[in-house]
Amino acid sequence: MRTMEADICVIGAGSGGLTVASGAAQMGAKVVLIEANEMGGDCLNFGCVPSKALIATARHAHAMRSGGIYGIAPVEPEVDFAAVHDHIHGVIAAIAPVDSQERFEGMGCTVIRAHARFVSEREVEAGDTRIRARRIVLATGSRPAVPPVEGLTDGPYLTNETLFDLKELPEHLLIIGGGNIGCEMAQAFRRLGARVTVIEGGTPLAKDDPENAELVLETMKGEGVSFVTGHHADKVEWTEGGVTVRTGAGTYSGSHLLVAAGRAPALDDLGLEAAGIERDKKGLKVDDTLQTTNRRVYAVGDAAGGMQFTHLAGYHGSTLIRRLLFGLPVKAKTSHMPWATYTSPELAQCGLTEKEAREAHGDAVEVVTSTYSENDRAEAERRTEGRVKVMVVGGRPVGASIVGESAGDLIALWSLAISAKLKMSQISGMVAPYPTLSELNKRAAGAYFSPRLFDNPNVKRVVRAVQRILP
Question: What are the backbone dihedrals phi and psi of residue 147, each rounded to the nearest 5 degrees, phi first?
Fold first, then answer.
């Protein structure tokens, strides 16, 4: 077995690991990057990228059916699902070079394609190589969580890791899980022509603002997606022609079954005990600097046991670089972390929801809104369903909830505002091009000041006095 010394050893070539590896290598550190599976991790190969490619296809299919309002005769699209499969994998292939082994080797990284395992507090074995590193970063990501449902593992259930290999459209797709992944895929497959039933033991899209989530769910139901809520899947039975799921609300049969019941950190068989690294059900135990119980080992992204977003892993990676390379004190925060569900309409959140804000700040919370129906661009495109809701404390936003067209893009401004501790006056002072949906954010900021200006008798008295003085 060969041995190798490194300043930084990164285990996992997803968003977080690649961020650390690229930054560290390009700034002169000796970096070893270890990945047993596909470069780019879950997001590129099985998650964000293929799912959004599928959603784009479904959007085009839906547009063909819904053009009547624009004066375009609706037609039923002919879906070639084998071509849809090729489109999805073509998108993956187009992005893959950015995350490729060759690119990272060109940056100066030593890339090892093997499973990594700790053999001591600072040594890792991968393939025929033992790496002794000053610092080690665990960026192993997560895998689909498979609930302990009787009979589930007896048949060919789908997860996000296998869903995008389908070359034939399911006749009737059953989905266990009504979170963001379950709802995104439910709407996409329904728009492509499949029957879809979502089975959710609790409330679908429960992490988001309930009013906003309800608008999404009602839209999906209007498009033909069926929901079974408040009842867990109790038993799965496989037949030659498909699958049946039994619940407390009844029995549901379909041709395919997708499990979208959350994700679990991928931490198995890493030899964590040998390195003195502790974990719990959520992931590795880390402090706010992302350091594990081994002072030489850090964790980023899903492995760190918090929010599970690609952009969070990238943020973790960029934050950690400052500590690993320069020894600077850093803390990873989530108060400004946005997320989005790419249904139609889209659903986005940053910071505190209204409920969370009221629990944290009580009567000090002011909620301001702007609606898509008041936006000229939304009206022109007939996308008037939706709202921007901002929670404000002491003149500064502490959270924003958006539902509507391009909500995932619009939420970015509020992440900046919360991160930089901007005031609503600064948001109100920006100029948005007309006509764009970005005016919705400015209008929400303006709504914070409207009652202070227009409903204030003192302001009116001052204005009248000034008018008498001015020439």
Answer: -70, 150
